[in-house]
Amino acid sequence: MNRFFGPRSFNVALFWQFFASYFILFIIPVIIASTFTYVFVVNLIEDEVQNSNNMTIRNFSDQTDTAFSSLQANMINLLGTSNLKSAMKLYSEPTKSFEYYEVTHSLMDQLNAMDTGDIVSNAYFYFAKSDLVIGFNSDTSKENFFQYFHPISDQDKKEYLSNFFGKKMMHFTKPYTLHQKILFTNEILSSSSNIATVMSYPFNSDNPDVYLVVNMKLSELSKHIRIPEKWVAGTAIVDRRGNVIIQSGELAIDPQQLLDATQSYSEGILYSDRKMESLSFVKSRFNDSWYYVSLINLETLLQPAHRIRMFTIIFLGFFLVLGGLVSFYLSKRLYKPILEIKSGLTSHLHKSVLPVQHKGNDYDFIKQFSKLLVSENKELSALVSGMFPIVQEDFIAKILSGEYRDHLAIELYAKEIDFYYERNVARTVLCIEIHYFSWVLDQISETSKAFMIVELKERILKSAPVVIWLCQTKPDLLACVVQHSRFSHFGPKEVSEYLALTLQQFNPYFKATIGVGKKVQDIGELYLSYESANTLLKHKSLHSKVEIITEDTAWEDRAQLDCFLSIDEVSRIFNIYKSQNYAKLLQTVIDLLDRAVVKNASAYQVKSLCSDVLNTWIRAIEMERKDLNIPFYSSLFERLNRCATWDEIKQCFEYIHTQLFQLKQRSDRSEQFTEILDYIHNHYGEELSVEKFAQQLNMSVSYFSRTFKETVGEKYVEYITKHRLMMAKRYLLETDMKIDEITEKVGYMGRTSFIRIFCKYEGITPGKYRTIHHR
């Protein structure tokens, strides 16, 4: 007994400390919860079931009534304030005037501006006495409207169209199926169940002219009337005959049961003829024939209370017994180890840098010291775990570079960094070259590019259909190792296609090229596959889309292109420069690039040829100018080398042409464009194509347009349009010419296009402009 309860195996103070802590933390809360459950919670739930349901169903009915009343008010307001009377007069005329389109667009705008809430999907005007339906984005015949814009299922169409007869005031149709089709086709994309409300205009007429139809999806109405309480099995809007108009949840209503409830009980009172299931209803203020009904599951409502009652009794006894046993066991087992641990920690405390304070009892001291050790170890473990992907990527990069070729060295190093691989498995390396567009290099920093590469890696690893190894061997080169498997149909070809889909998401920032290396049988030979994939990248083109290059497709559809200018071509460039026809120098390069596009030349071939052209330009200009230095020329070659697409190379040469020859051209440009402006002023009624003037000045169309804006201050098309409108306004005010005559006089092919341009710039039609200024 002394050994069992002795001071070295059992400590009374420690026992009572454990038990007191246990009693305060567990037993007292259990007793309070049990007492609260019996005295208050259960009784409160049972007493307040009826009040809670009454409040919920009334709030539900008020919200739904408000929504339908708001919808009715909006429909009345739209019909009362719209210009339907004037519209019907215009629609009865045989020809469509300009006012016809103005009124139609006004009605469309009113439909778009109608405040219909979140239960309405669309609305339209149905003209009873005309073959016309106007929606928020269409005005068409009834047949076209119900076939393409509002296609109703054939079995519901006849009954649906029967609603457009007689006086209607917020009349709800029966549910019908509405299809969604590709416009002007009969291909059905999806279908949905809908219900519509119809209102006629004039309001008191038995033979109305127009019907305003508001369409609502039953799924959205079901969400709108749903009560989110778990104890509500379902809700519905039911008429006095027991027919369900709209419902949400699982709800089966017996019409006779509802009739008995409405005759025997008041609104909001629970009515039940089955065990643990009750019915409650409220009459609608919006429609006297409607009832809002909710089905209450009392078993679900009271289930938490029953469980609390049972579990609290069981746990109270369990925790009392368990607390005594645990406290006795812990005090007996922990006292001696606590002393031993504390003595060991005390002897080594002066060697540690952890901030441990000597406060509390022995257990508190050990707990404090242990928490600090665990925290320190977790930080160290997290640091090591975070370094593993970096180390493994570096390991793969060294294998691809050929630094690791020996099987034993690869195996030992892989074990050290926890890198698993199968030795005798065929693999293929895919090289992804990233070539940033010029404008991207000018705008983003190296940090932004690094983050972009990280995001690209994450997307590749997530979208890859098989497990791959990914590493960055160069700043602009990613290597992807694909493992061949007998159990998967995904090989290098399929993986490269998945990579292309992922890389397309980054097309706005860079051009990506995928080189597919040769297949190798051993991991030590991966460097051979990497070298072959890297070599294939030299065959990339200058198209902006993502390219996949294999040994079979490297030379496909590509003709050989001379990478250097011939002696005759160099002499020709020198002669053009001497004749001071600088525009022709640029056009010569454009022609060379166009021929390269036709031959589908590689980027390497095109850039070599362009470098030779640039070198020839520099040699030619150096004969006269000595103010340009080597760093300036180097920047031009660097700019050319950064080009990734055909358009970038053309824009680059236009920029270089401007830098090298702008001083020569500036003196002649003003005189040339003065002659062009004079020609435009004298021939504004004729066809003035930009191609004609560009060819006259030996310029490309894009270069002419840019030079015109720099010299004149406005775009070419804008300048001609404003001059023609200025002359048109002069004819409108100073002559009695008709609109069609003025249209032809100022160079427009049709009356419609002239009126549209005039309204865009002046804000009114030509006829109104003449009327206003003649007053």
TrEMBL record:
Record SUPFAM superfamilies: Homeodomain-like
Pfam families hit by this protein: HTH_18
Gene3D superfamilies reported in the protein's UniProt record: Homeodomain-like
Keywords: DNA-binding, Membrane, Transcription, Transcription regulation, Transmembrane, Transmembrane helix
Domain (HTH araC/xylS-type): residue spans on this chain: 674-772
Superkingdom: Bacteria
InterPro entries xrefs: Homeodomain-like_sf, HTH_AraC
Annotated TM spans: 20-45, 310-330
Protein name: Helix-turn-helix transcriptional regulator
Source species taxonomy: Bacteria, Bacillati, Bacillota, Bacilli, Bacillales
